[in-house]
Request: fold
Amino acid sequence: MTYCVGLLLNEGIVLLSDTRTNAGLDNIATYRKTFLFEEPGECVIAIMAAGSLSVTQTTLARLREAMDHPEANDETSILQAPTLLKVAQIVGNMLAQVRLEIDEKLGALHQGASALMIVAGQRRGGAMRLFLIYPEGNFIEATEDTPFLQIGEHKYGKPILDRVVCPETSLADAQKAVLLSVDSTLRSNLSVGMPLDLTVIPRDACRVTEQRRIEAGDPQFRAMSEAWSKVLRDGFDRIVI
Reply:
């Protein structure tokens, strides 16, 4: 399993993903789940993936092939797509096609494979947008009312986002929020694990300005986690019923 979260704010986009992939207690591996595509100053697109590796890796490989194809155009290449809505449509169509192909191969074994993706970014002159792509290829979009999207093991990290994140949240506070969100998930679910990948895309920059990998034992992350635990314990002690 995995945990990925994206925030769409007035100041920009903040994304965070873990890297754990497991197919049982004795088969755990590390795979990057955030993928970036850029033409700095013109277009930036981030894709985060959760679910079957066979589906997500094939989908991303085909998206890259489409971008590199000599006849790539705005209907096939996410970097040439005129809007982020079109990017979401291209990714959704590719994800649905790959999922159906793999499902057909696994059908004889009475098995299936599925995946979800978060697509975020901006094209110069356009709006920043954040989408959650479902396995069937359809999608939903982050809004002012719900300025964040999650995939994977999202239930443990959702409460803090519900309480503190709004469109006016600063990029600095947003990074703190997603890190505390994943910290709660790490403590409650073994299928989510470090290292973590943090990405920041400021509004109208059309490029990634911060990309950081947080390894297990990172002193800054550990200090933040310990401070958060202390705040929660102190708050709990102060509540009277």
In short: The chain is about 35% helix and 30% strand. The two ends are 38 Å apart (CA to CA). Residues 132 and 175 are 20 Å apart (CA to CA).
